[in-house]
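re: that chain from earlier
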Amino acid sequence: MTLVQQTHEILATARSVLDTPETSAEIDRLSARLDAPLRVAIAGKVKAGKSTLLNALVGELLAPTDTGECTKVVTWYVDGHTYQVMLYPANGGTPVQARFNRDDGAIDIDLGGRNAADVDRLEVTWPSGGLRELTLIDTPGVDSLNESIATKAYEFLDPDEDDTPADAVLYLMKHIHAADLRLLEAFHDDSMAAPSPVNAIAVLSRADEIGVGRPNSMDSANRIAVRLGDDPRLRRLVQMIVPVAGLLAETAGTMTESEYRELCELAALGADELEMLLLSADRFVEARPETPLTSLDRARLVGRFGLFGIRSATALLSAGTVTSSRQLAEQLTRLSGLDELRGVLSTLFVARADVLKARSGLLAVERLCREHRGAPGVESLEAELERVMASAHPFNEMNTLAAIRSGWVTGPAARVAELERILGTTGTLPAQRLGLAVTASVDEIRHTSIAEIARLQRIAENPLTTLDLATAIRVAIRSLEGIVAETS
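^ sequence. v structure.
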């Protein structure tokens, strides 16, 4: 029986034990959640680029972006067969359908005269391939000058009594400051109900700004991300750090043919002249009249691509590397880091979707049991819940990874990195866990797993190995035994 099936059975038992209208309605929602796409919340400070990254991941301009604070209400973006926006009042009233229109691509939602503080959340249903595997949740900036908006963001990601509505979290940071670390630490809690390293990823969402828009900006951002990945303060909060040029990622996926032609005109300039134009945004926009395009066109291009994007696009065009808008969009998407982020989401979140959703469901049942402790049947329900959570190896993997990332399990750096890999930090496919090429044969995977089990058993049984490290190694051995069973 799969973990999701076991969770469905636990929920069915909870419905019969906790037989009240309120708990039945919540259990119905939890059951539906198990069969729905994984929920990923995008969080961060104001203007960290949350809405921009959401648009890039969806591949469509849905969430509004501007120079001011745009997201003031928690907004869910869900795949569906129709175009609809539902408004959920903050007082728990009946949801109502909200009117909306699209302004230059982005969705403009009419709150019907309500203040943002009076709205619990908005749910945007939109037919989109980018939302089929992941439901994306755009959250307000936690440092908003409006205290009620900032509080709403914190309460969504770290509720006092309820379980977190998201299964996983992307933390966005514009730059690396102590304030960003404090923000992440505020979200983190050592209880299993809160976001943990195994279901959280940090994103340097405006990575091109780290290198001030220079051609090697993303290389600089990648080096910084690698260094930050070794920071013990961040390791206990997130699984990894991925640099993304958010604006370029969004624009590459929504670039028009007219924008492609305008970039071609600019690319026809000499390299020296173009480089002088791109020294600053003002210089580019206010160039002399004979410069290709009008100042309004150039201002629009800067707003869409940024200096880094224009510099990168014109370089590709001048070199003849790309000869069509489709090719340019593909190259710019790769350069922006979006492909890498999508790969990370697929490997670490989508591949573990059932585990993460089951975890959310079981933790919610655990909370319901605490709230109804003493009621008939609750004690036996808790015992069954504990049995499922203790016997499910994926949960043991997640707990062990969290312990390693939090510094509770220590050992030689190379051995700890090896354990993290086996437990799935770089992917849950057998070859990824073993550090083999993705083209590795079944026999190679099986023989490598058997050899690794024997080696790790010797290390775990060594009297010099600490108890915590030996325990973590035995969890990794269990993961390898699962691979052997699958390949036999």
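The radius of gyration is 25 Å.
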